[in-house]
Specification:
alpha/beta; TIM Barrel; 8 strands; 14% strand; binds 3-methyl-2-oxobutanoic acid
Amino acid sequence: MTQYLADSTIKPLSILDLAAMKRAGEKITCLTAYDASFSTILDNAGVDAILVGDSLGMVVQGHGSTLPVSMSDMVYHTACVARGRRRSLLIADLPFMSCATVELAAENAARLIQAGGAQVVKLEGARPEIIEFLSNQGIAVCGHLGLLPQSINQLGRYRVQGREEDEADKILEQARQLEQAGAAMLVLECIPAQLARTISRELRIPVIGIGAGVDCDGQVLVLYDMLDIGIGRRPRFSKNYLQAAGGGIDAAVQLYVSEVRQSLFPDAEHGF
Ligand code: KIV
């Protein structure tokens, strides 16, 4: 492990590498992680991007939503993950209310990058003004549309977004606006596969889906969901890879990587 962490000959992937994968039609693999050990396992398995998601509030901290997660939590877990990985691109979430103003967003994005070691910061919602500001400061930003867990008190429950035509049109238009504003990549959560396909084909930036069908440029899952070790119920769009691979964590992550690369995951059973 010491030798592994000290190895500085491997450069992490950049946002340009992910964009090149999209252009080449190669699927991008992404999983969440919150600590150095899982980060190393994911990196060793060839996961292209690791997301330090604010889902840690639910799967690590045991809260009922992502709302209690603080900036200090995010910086702490991002720094842990940064120490465990060599090649994977490191993305970190900006948590609830950390982007209430552009100034706050800039300050908090800088913390994730400087103290946490993040290469990309992700923020939820149709906030082109924030993305434009951060992007103008040289920050690589990932947007997040569809189901927005930080808005759970407005949504009422976690459910598929964009089923109705007007809702779908709105999400498509928001995706265009985020790309226009300078987003370097986009996560689509829990939307119909057909809408995600349209968005992925239209946008030039990499589009990573979770519960958004197989035609996104890549896939992300919450690690504890795909290992089925979370305290909550596994979402319908996630798959129990620990079981599918026969019980080992390394094998489970490798199977996920292989199935995403071959467009075998998600299948119809794990989409909308
Ligand atoms: O917080 C998180 O893990 C996320 C994923 C669900 C995309 O944002």
